[in-house]
Design brief:
The protein has 21 helices and 23 strands. With 653 residues, it is of the alpha/beta class. A hairpin with a 4-residue loop joins strand 8 and strand 9 (201-203). Helix 9 (267-279) packs across helix 10.
Length: 653
C-alpha cells in the first residue's frame, strides 16, 4: 500500500488509461556489458572502442530511449529461482533457491517435493486471468514440470509453446549434456519441446519443428531454429489477439532461450555481425565464444523488434507496457558473456551476477518519463505485485494459504516437518517507477549468502567467478588461461550425474582455483555507492533472514519421468498425476514400440540400486580429465571464417 503515499498526480495514468497490454520479455543469461546502452559511455582506449563496436542492440536501445532504464533491478544468481520468483511473486529464497532436475520427486512431500514452484502457489497468469487478461507464454519455462499444476497450463497460461528444462539444443531440441550440464535419469535421451492450447496438450510433433535439417541453411531465419519457432509463435499471438474486446487485454510472456548455452545461431548472423563491427570501426572479433554470443544477441534484438512492430501494426502498442529483464547476469565461465564493468557473473552474488539488464517501454509509459532512468531497487518478484495492481486484482495468494492450513492440520505432513509456503512478498513498483520514488527501502534477501541494504551489500561464503571483466571479454587471454588450466571452468554447483555433483577438477582446492572462487567467509561488505562499515549489522540481518529460507527436499532424479516421456514421443513433460494432461498420442509402429521397450529397460537398469552408484562413480572419476581436455574457446585469427565456430558450445547450465 506504499503507493498511496505518493502524490495524487502519480495515479493519473491508472485512471486515464485502460488496463495495458503487457509484453514481458525475459532474456536468459544476458550480460550487462552486452547491451548497447551500457556501452554508450565507453572510454577512449582501443579496448573500450572495440567493445562498443561489437555490441549491437538497436531495437533494445530505441525502446530504452522511449521508455525507462531500470538501473537497480535484481534477480537470483541462477535461472530457475528467478523464473520461479517472477511467476510466483516470492523472493527466490522463499520459493526455489536451487536448480533441481525437472525429473525430481520427493514422495514424502506432495506440495513442495518437486523442482520449481511448489504445487499450491498461484501464478501471475492466474491472477491476470482474474483481471480479464488473455494469457500466453512462449519459450523457456524452468519453473517446474512434475505435475500438471507445475506446467504453464497449471499456472494460468491459456497457451504455451516452449521447453521445460534449463536449456535444450537450439537445433535438435534435445536435452544433451552441453545444453543442460546434467547426465539425467533418462541418460539425456529425451527431447524437450511442448505446447498446449484449447485443443491440445503435449509434445510438439510436427516434423519441421523437431528437425535440425536447416542448421546448414544460409538464410538468416531458418525455419527449424528454435528461436525462429518461438518468434513466429509470438507474432501469431499478437496478430490473433482480439482488440475488439478491451476488457480482455493481452499478457504475453516472451521467454527467450537466448542467450543461454549451447551457443548456436544461424550462420548468416555471424556475417551480419562482422559487417556491423567493421562499419562501427572495429576489428574482427578474436574469441569464438564472444563472436557467437554477440551474434545471438543481435538475433534476439531483431526478434524483439519484430514483436514490437507487430504490436504497432495491430495498433496495440500505444496501450502496451513492455517489461524486459534477464534472469541473471551473464555467465563469465566459457559462455561468451560480459558484465563489464560489474564484478562477477552468473552463480555469484556480486553485481555482475544479480544486477540485470532491465527496462520498461511501450506506449503505456507516461510521456514525461520517457528517456529517463529509475535508480530505485527492484526485485524480479516485484513484477507480480506490479502487474496485479495494474490488472486491478489482489496480490494475496489464497491457494497457498489454504495449502498452509492443510499442512498445519495434517498430522502426517506435520510429523515430516515439511515447510509452510511463504506468502507473496512482491512490492508493486509501477507508481514508484513513474514517480521516480523508491518503493523498496528495507533490506532485500538476495540469497542465503547475500543481503542488500542500499547502498550496502553483504556477501558471504564462497563465491565462484569472482572476477571483473575488461571491455573485451572473453578474449585470447582467457583462451590461454583455460588451456593452461587456470580457469575459468564452469562452476560445478549444477554439474550433475543422476543428481550427484560432477567434479570439474581433481581436488576441491583445484576446483576453487579454476572456477575463480573467492571465499568471503563471514562476509565481504560491498559498498555500491559510499564507503561505510556496517558489517556486523548486515551479518545479523542475513542470519535472521536465512531463518525463513525456503529450501525443501526436492527429491531424487526419477526414472518414472523418463517412462512417461517415452510414452509421449520421448519428450519431457508432467509425470505425476498426469494421465488427463496429455492429448491422445498417435499410434506407434511396431518398431517404435520395440525401441521404446528397449530404451525403458536400459533406463530402468541404469537407475537400479546396483548400477546407478557404479555409473555415478565412473563418470565422477573421468569428469576432471574431460573438463581439463575440453576445447572451450578458440582465439580466432583475423581471417577466420565464422562458420568454424557454429558448433562451439559449453557443457553447463
Amino acid at each position: 500500500m506504499a503507493f498511496l503515499t505518493l502524490p495524487l498526480l502519480a495515479l493519473t495514468p491508472l485512471v486515464a488509461q485502460a488496463k495495458p497490454h503487457v509484453l514481458f520479455i525475459l532474456a536468459d543469461d544476458y550480460g550487462w556489458g552486452n547491451m548497447g546502452v551500457h556501452r554508450r559511455s565507453a572510454g577512449s582506449t582501443p579496448e573500450e572502442k572495440q567493445g562498443k563496436a561489437e555490441v549491437h542492440t538497436p531495437n533494445i536501445d530505441a525502446l530504452i530511449d522511449e521508455g525507462i532504464l531500470l538501473e537497480r533491478h535484481y534477480t537470483y544468481k541462477i535461472c530457475s529461482p528467478t523464473r520461479s520468483s517472477i511467476q510466483s511473486g516470492r523472493l527466490a529464497v522463499h520459493v526455489n533457491p536451487v536448480n533441481s532436475a525437472v525429473t525430481s520427486r520427493n514422495y514424502n512431500d506432495p506440495v513442495s517435493g518437486y523442482a520449481g514452484i511448489p504445487r499450491n502457489m498461484t501464478g501471475i497468469a492466474e491472477k491476470l486471468r482474474d483481471g480479464g487478461y488473455r494469457t500466453h507464454i512462449v519459450g523457456k519455462w524452468d519453473a517446474g514440470m512434475a505435475t500438471p499444476e507445475h506446467s504453464p497450463k497449471g499456472r494460468g497460461y491459456e497457451t504455451w509453446y516452449g521447453y521445460y528444462q534449463h536449456a535444450n539444443d537450439y537445433w535438435h531440441k534435445s536435452t544433451v549434456f552441453m545444453a543442460t550440464g546434467e547426465i539425467d535419469a533418462c541418460l539425456n535421451r529425451m527431447k524437450d519441446l511442448s505446447m498446449h492450447n484449447e485443443t491440445y496438450s503435449g509434445p510438439v510433433r510436427d516434423a519441421i519443428s523437431l528437425s535440425a535439417a536447416c542448421q546448414e541453411d544460409e538464410e538468416s531465419d531458418p525455419g527449424c531454429y528454435e528461436e525462429h519457432l518461438f518468434k513466429e509463435q509470438v507474432l501469431k499471438i499478437i496478430r490473433n489477439h482480439d482488440t475488439a474486446k478491451p476488457e480482455n487485454p493481452l499478457f504475453l510472456f516472451y521467454s527467450f532461450h537466448l542467450l543461454h548455452t549451447p551457443l548456436q545461431v544461424p550462420k548468416a548472423w555471424l556475417e551480419k555481425l562482422h559487417k556491423l563491427v567493421a562499419e562501427a570501426g572495429g576489428k574482427r572479433i578474436d574469441s569464438g565464444l564472444r563472436l557467437l554470443y554477440a551474434a545471438m544477441t543481435l538475433y534476439m534484438d531483431a526478434a524483439i523488434g519484430e514483436a514490437v512492430n507487430a504490436l504497432k501494426e495491430k495498433k496495440m502498442y500505444d496501450n502496451t507496457l513492455i517489461i524486459f529483464t534477464s534472469d541473471n547476469g551473464g555467465p563469465i565461465y566459457p559462455a561468451g558473456a560480459s558484465n563489464y564493468p560489474l564484478r562477477g557473473g552468473k552463480y555469484n552474488d556480486w553485481e555482475g551476477g544479480v544486477r540485470t539488464n532491465a527496462w520498461v517501454s511501450g506506449g503505456f509509459v507516461p510521456a514525461q518519463r520517457r528517456g529517463a532512468k529509475f535508480d530505485g531497487i527492484i526485485n524480479a518478484a516485484d513484477w507480480y505485485g506490479t502487474l496485479t495492481e495494474l490488472a486491478g486484482v489482489e496480490m494475496v495468494d489464497h491457494k497457498s494459504e489454504k495449502a498452509n492450513a492443510f499442512l498445519k492440520a495434517n498430522a502426517f505432513l506435520k510429523e515430516k516437518g515439511l515447510p509452510l509456503l511463504h506468502p507473496v512478498d512482491s512490492i508493486p513498483q509501477w507508481q514508484a517507477i513513474i514517480s521516480n520514488a523508491p518503493a523498496r527501502t528495507g533490506p532485500m534477501h538476495l540469497s542465503s549468502q547475500a543481503v542488500l541494504q542500499w547502498p550496502y551489500k553483504l556477501v558471504t561464503g564462497k563465491q565462484a567467478m569472482s572476477a571483473w571483466q575488461g571491455p573485451l571479454y572473453p578474449n585470447c587471454s582467457t583462451v590461454h588461461s583455460l588451456e593452461d588450466r587456470n580457469g575459468p571452468l564452469p562452476p560445478q554447483q549444477d554439474m550433475k550425474v543422476f543428481g550427484e555433483p560432477l567434479p570439474v577438477a581433481e581436488t576441491p582446492a583445484e576446483v576453487d582455483r579454476q572456477t575463480w572462487v573467492i571465499d568471503c567467509g563471514a562476509g565481504c561488505l560491498v559498498n555500491v555507492e559510499d564507503y561505510a562499515k556496517l558489517l556486523k549489522s548486515l551479518q545479523e540481518t542475513l542470519e535472521s533472514m536465512n531463518k525463513e529460507l525456503f529450501n525443501p527436499d526436492r527429491g531424487l532424479d526419477r526414472v518414472e519421468a523418463c517412462e512417461v516421456a517415452i510414452e509421449q514421443s520421448r519428450t519431457f513433460g508432467p509425470f505425476v498425476d498426469s494421465k488427463e494432461f496429455y492429448s491422445p498420442a498417435p499410434p506407434k509402429t511396431l518398431l517404435e514400440q520395440v525401441e521404446d521397450a528397449a530404451l525403458t529397460a536400459v533406463l530402468r537398469k541404469a537407475n537400479s540400486q546396483t548400477a546407478k552408484p557404479l555409473l555415478i562413480a565412473a563418470v565422477q572419476t573421468i569428469s576432471p580429465k574431460v573438463f581439463a581436455n575440453s576445447a572451450w574457446d578458440k582465439c580466432l585469427a583475423p581471417e577466420s571464417e565464422p562458420q568454424s565456430f557454429l558448433d562451439a558450445g559449453i557443457v553447463t547450465v
